[in-house]
Amino acid sequence: MNPAITLDQQYALTTAATRLERDFAGTFNVETIERFLHSSYDQFAGRAKVTTFLPLLAEKFARQRLNALARVEGKHLDGKPTVLFLCVHNAGRSQMALGFFEHYAGENAVAWSGGSEPGDQVNGEAIAAMTERGIDISNEYPKPWTDEVVRAADVVITMGCGDACPIFPGKRYEEWVLDDPAGLTATDIRPIRDEIERRVLALLDELHVTPGFTSSRV
Q1: Is 114 tagged catalytic?
Q2: Would you call 173 a catalytic residue per the annotation?
Q3: Distance between CA 131 and CA 48 in Å, rounded?
Q4: Which residue among the candidates 16, 17, 54, 87 is catalytic per the annotation?
Q5: Does the pTM of the predicted model rise above 0.70?
Q6: Is the distance from CB of 13 to CB of 37 less than 8 angstroms?
Q7: Rounded distance, CA 192 to CA 96, Å?
Q8: Among 4, 39, 57, 168, whose CB has the most other CB atoms within 10 angstroms?
Q9: From 165, 186, 189, 201, the catalytic residue
Q10: What pLDDT, on the 0 to 100 scale, is given for residue 47?
Q11: 182-202, pLDDT tens digit by residue?
Q12: Is there a catalytic annotation at residue 161?
């Protein structure tokens, strides 16, 4: 047992592993699932200020990574377009893009987000700006990108992470030049938010994904 992990956290990780093993039975073996869970835990533990929710974050991130790996290995072929939104801290632009994408695409496409230098939490003013659109991103959390997530994406949208963004040959990349909302008020973030919404709708059109809503604007 990792000495940095408390008994409560160890119990929570064991419970998380049981859930993942049940959900990915027949797709991945126990060793692979536990390796992804514990490496996901380590990704957050090294920078977390509050450790209470680390096992839950690790489980959510491990689930995303395992789903991505299943796509890469051809074990999950649903034909849905998959998009990855990347920025520096995964706290503002990429989270807003993810929020709009999931809002409009519904079950018709898959989207993930990540950061080259993940922050501690999602930008509160970005959360407020998205709430004005009726979209709740308060339950999201900054996370790093991993190789399997990038490899599983059909399209990788980058927003300011420059050379730190992962490059895989043959994959479609698109850079969205947008101001960083860090330090801005919700009022100042609105134009950035609206431009992200416009670009997400255009991307969905290019991917031939029919939005479930015509507009989130009020």
Answers
A1: no
A2: no
A3: 26
A4: 87
A5: yes
A6: yes
A7: 9
A8: 57
A9: 165
A10: 75
A11: 999 999 999 999 999 999 999
A12: yes
